[in-house]
Design brief:
150 residues; alpha+beta; 3-stranded mixed sheet; 3 strands
């Protein structure tokens, strides 16, 4: 009985030590990700300009913008009767932003869940000196973009 207990506890001990080496491999693979070569750059001035342009459109109550590299994601909050013309508002915002930022890939959404996610990403400080953290934030933005389309 003691032998079985000893064997089981040794197996658990060995199994508990293995994830540490996997964490190092996971960190290395994040740094080697082609999405993060070179280190992503966040453009705060473009975000503020995009937010100001977006809020000038009639019917928009609130706007959030995040720009990492050449991706500009904008979330708009529209309320009351302006919801009836939501598609035209999104299209107008997209056209105005495309005129102001011709080199950026622009994505506009009014989904409430995505608005909150973009607000969280916007509020998160950018870790320019930490490539792994910057890469993680860019992957979060890519996931938000994927949810916008789907």
């Amino acid at each position: 009985m003691r032998t079985i207990l000893l064997v089981v506890s040794m197996c658990l001990f060995v199994a508990g030590c293995n994830p540490q080496s996997n964490q190092q491999a996971k960190t290395k693979s994040a740094a080697e990700d082609p999405l993060c070569k070179p280190t992503p750059i966040r453009y705060y001035d473009s975000e503020q300009k995009a937010k100001a342009i977006t809020e000038q459109v009639n019917g928009i109550d609130k706007a959030v913008a995040v720009r990492i590299d050449d991706e500009l994601d904008v979330a708009i909050e529209v309320s009351n009767f302006n919801r009836f013309r939501l598609e035209s508002i999104e299209k107008e915002v997209g056209e105005k932003l495309k005129n102001s930022f011709p080199d950026a890939k622009i994505h506009v959404t009014s989904d409430k869940r995505l608005i909150k996610e973009l607000q969280n990403l916007n509020a998160t400080p950018w870790a320019a000196d930490n490539q792994a953290e910057a890469c993680k934030q860019k992957k979060t933005l890519k996931q938000i973009e994927k949810d916008m389309k789907g």
